Amino acid sequence: MSLIGQHLLASGAPSLSSPHQTSSPASPAANGGFSCLCINALPIALDDRPYSLHNSHPLAATVGHRCPPSAADDFISESVTVASLGEAEKEMVMRRISSHSRASKSNSLSQLDVSVPALERFRPEVAHPAVELLEPWDTEFLSKGLQALPALPVADASCSVLQNEEVHKSKPRRVFINNPLRTNDRGDLVGNKVRTSKYTWLTFLPKNLFEQFRRVAYIYFLAIVILNQIPQLAVFGRTASLFPLLFVLVVTAIKDGYEDWGRHRSDVIENNRLAQVFTQGEFRPKKWKQIEVGEVVKVDANTPVPCDMVLLGTSDPTGVAYIQTLNLDGESNLKTRYARQETQVKQPDIHPLSGCVVCEPPTRNIYEFTAFLELDSGKFSLGPSNVILRGCELKNTAWIVGVVVYAGKDTKVMKNSAGAQSKRSKLESRMNSATMWLAFFLLLICLVGGLGMGIWVGKHQKILNVLPYYGKTDISTGEDVEFYNVVGEAVFAFLSFVIMFQVMIPISLYISMELVRLGQSSFMSRDKEMYCSGSDTRFECRALNINEDLGQIKYIFSDKTGTLTQNKMEFYTASIDGVNYVDGVKDFSSSDSSLDQIRRSGGAGPMPEQLVKVDLKLLHLLQSGVESLEKKVVQDFFLVLAVCNTVVPIKVEEETSLAFDNSGTDQSPGKSIFIDYQAESPDEQALVTAAASYGYVLLERSSMHVLVGVQGVVQRYDLLGFHEFDSVRKRMSVVVRCPDRSIKVFMKGADTTVLDLVTKHTLFTATSAAERHSANVFTSTVSHLDEYAKTGLRTLVIAFKDLSEADYYEWESQFSNASTALGNNRVVLLRKVAESLERDLILLGATGVEDKLQDGVPETIAALRAAGMKVWVLTGDKQETAISIGFACNLLTHDMEQIIINANTASACRDAIFRAKEGIQNLKAISVQRCNGKHFESPQSSPLSSTAMLSTASTTHLHADGGKLQEPNGLHGENSPPLALIIDGNSLLHALAKDMEQELFELATACQAVICCRVAPSQKSNIVSLVKDKAQEMTLAIGDGANDVPMLQKAHVGIGLSGQEGRQAVMSSDFSMGQFRFLSKLLLVHGHWNYQRLSYMVLYNFYRNAVFVMMLFWFILQTAFSASSAIFDWNLMFYSLIYTSVPTVVVGIFDKDISQKTLLENPPLYGAGQRDENYNSLLFWITMLDTLWQSLVLFYVPLYTYQVSTIDIWSIGSLWTVAVVILVNLHLAMDVQHWTWITHLAIWGSIASTFGCLFILDSITVESFLPHYRVIHKMIRTFGYWYDIVLIVILALLPRFFVKVVVQRVWPCDIQIAREVETMNNVKGSDLNHPHAEFG
């Protein structure tokens, strides 16, 4: 498929029904143009997302500026002059020229170029529908040349203060075109070299060490190493003591360096790309990293843009360029940019071009750009439509030329390159508290050792000189050995014990956890069942440090559009003139003959490749030759759908075996030409496609006009003005001049606003047939809207009115004055002008667009709720639509009692919440009475019926304890109805206030399901924060759009979906995937496994190191509290790093307590993670008690068996080393629940490697190794050696084995029951389809 970069119908003379032709300069900003606003690509928030228009927006510009005409414009106006116009037309043109002249004289530079359709300029606001739009800041740059230029509005409230400060602190940037030396005369501008890598060759070592030592444990181990270098405290060999810390530091540094090396290579490739830079009168290749601000750069088609550039010219004579911002914001649809005509006609390689671009300092906001151009003694405004950012790719345009305004790290894409905020897992946080307990215990036993040493020295001070191994005089030299008195000896002993027992804090645990998480992430990413073939998206782990949190989620916060639904809108039904057309899927016809009819209706122009199914009755009405009032209304209805939008039609050519000719009748092999509608909003795309399916084909759009194929005849509609959609107005309107020279206002918007603006009549007040018909249409349309909302359709109301010339001139004058106002006044004035225009409308009908649920959503939500998770839906949609989707996806059920809160004031919201809580208390009392055998009222007469609409899912039961709602286990009777809370954004605005948030929290958490409607992005984040802070439970947020980013970052776990709204959510998430249905597999299976594995691994590491330390502690009690050790220094170091580390990692990656099938079939098993069954304080202390017993067995069994022998200290130390390694590995083997060959290799190989290392160490003849020479060789030949090992293992593990058997037989948990059933079925050779056990 190839995209043809030209306007539709530009190659031939279209049949035009418009007699009005004007001469238009081929410039997007030519003076004296029509007073029009470009609506080429203005995204209308049909999905109820609020948008706002700031001063820097091109559509907020002086009405005298013009957008580029298409090739069709040139064809139409080729030889027409203003003189050929009628008197009315001349007057209109002169009025517009006059208004432009006034605006130019005022140098109102906040009025941006209207020449640009700007798909990307509108962005969701964090404002609530009940709140006024964020007004442009009434601030000005501190430069004389920018006194009228307002500060840049930012994309979200979170960074507004930062950017506002940037504007005030920095002076505006002056960029002299093609003069980089003058531009950077102060040398304060950065070059275009970028670096996304974290390190350089010089900074790697210090920066990496600094980052690693931010872990407090590393500082602890560093202190231990330093202490061990002091001769008096050198318990271990100085070299050996360095090994553990160096090993951890080196391994981590290698991992960090490897990750950063990939970024470094990407930087090298990026910086050494070649671009065409204008130098010495021609464009010459130059490396990207050498490009400077002020240079003129040429970019060819399908080539990335090297820096942020103001567009000076394009290959299109109109100055238009098409770009793709996939690498910038993840959106794949084409966007348009425009060069001003003042620069378009002055290409640097043809005509000399000198001027100055005065722009704001670099900011992060990719959707805004505020600047002006000084050229030929004039000033011309520049906006987002005139700038192309680094990371964009040029499409459908042969070349563009621009001047560099931001380079390198000043570019907007680099300003936004910061990663997601760091999160910490719940397990790791709880692990820190256990570490503190271990540290306290370590200090305690060191203190015991130190005090013991002091007491012992004090008692034996008189005979110290004659004691073996402790004499004050060196026998060989006769010199006195330094003695530090009793206190000094106690202090040195204490510090020596700290060094000796350092392994109590497991340094290897940190590396082990990283390796386990890496392995778990690999398994999740390679899971074929979580691969989305439709979007070719695999599961992606973007944060490796919170894998285990996936197994402990209690609250799930989900977006609706694009998350639960597909965000692929399909025109489903329409109410036109009170008639419900396409009333259900059954009326659709998908036969080839019907499609042929539609194609024939397209006439002279191409058609969209994908058409909606049509209602044949409606299609025949439109194609009939009989004129009627009914047909006229239907024609106006579809005309509004085709014209009142911001969709950009692009011609697409592809090779096919059959192709339609212009008549739509003949077919021949060759190329087919289709229209591809580019729209940010899927709703608009669906409506425009629906209009095309009924013969109203949008063929071309410019800022001046649209061309529509109406039943085979191309008609031109001149665009005279436009009021954009925003979150307050919730509607858009466009003023057009029709082919018959009449002026009309077309409008579409939400029913809550448009229905109030239409002319209303009632059957009781109607005095004529027309008024009675109008009353019937209004009543029927309202009824149809309710039906659509209840079936989950997204609705819009369509209306229009005729506008007289006098009314138009009056509105045009008011609009011109309002659009040139500065500061906060502009939005207020524009709203007032819109209100004066948008009244007394004629209601045409309404549309119903279906946003289908994604596959598997109902089943997934049912499974998640069965697992004990509460699902909250946070959406910007209207309440009725959200409730309907709630039923469709099993979030709401008909046995639920709905608590609906819609309040516009704080007092009303407070009263509604208190009434709902009181009703729940009464409901609880009724449930208790019923449990006691008393009468239970029906739901219709329940205490909530006054504040709730009945019907809606689970089994959460409520009671009051101290005036606070809680969730007991089964207080309610089984017939008590579950609860659902539905609350809108207006109510949340008050409910989230400090004095009400606790009441809202108690009410919401008492309900099984919660739906928040009409919420803004900031409110989504506030709701998540409320539950996260007050419930102290694990939260997960999932969404697919940029408006979901705040809640994704606020929740403990954020999951982004790769959907229709770009990749902003993915880029800000911790995990990403393609479909909502994968959430059940992710949480119930991988989440459970991750939590179970890591929880056990943490406990096991604490046990493994503590048992070793306690064995050493018992030894000092037998050696006069001496810091000497029977275990070789290198064995002390290798114990955690080599002898026992590999099995821990392998089991942490591969072990699983229960199969995937059982976990999916029994969602309540997930509750083990929610209840912290695998890691809690009780388990920790039980493990420590077990550790105490095993350490006693380890030490005293060899001590007593070799009590009467000639064995030396190093021989018994060798026995202890081997025994403890075998013991901890068999301890691990006892707990392994899923054996694989890798597990066998790791455990038994670890024991074998221990023997191997001992043989090697005991064979070294270096002086420091001689005391251990061939110790292991002699010991393994004795019977007592092996006897002790076997005895130690049996005695140490016997209590643990006994307790495990008793607990599993007498007090089994859900997991143990499920595992036993699974094992029994496996033994029988049958699959586990429905375990005959209940898990709860």
Automatic annotation (TrEMBL):
Residues 941-956 have a biased composition (Low complexity). The keyword Transmembrane applies. Keywords: ATP-binding, Magnesium, Membrane, Metal-binding, Nucleotide-binding, Translocase, Transmembrane, Transmembrane helix. Its cofactor is Mg(2+). Belongs to the cation transport ATPase (P-type) (TC 3.A.3) family. Type IV subfamily. The chain crosses the membrane at residues 434-457, 490-511, 1102-1121, 1133-1150, 1178-1197, 1209-1229, 1241-1260, 1280-1299. This is Phospholipid-transporting ATPase.
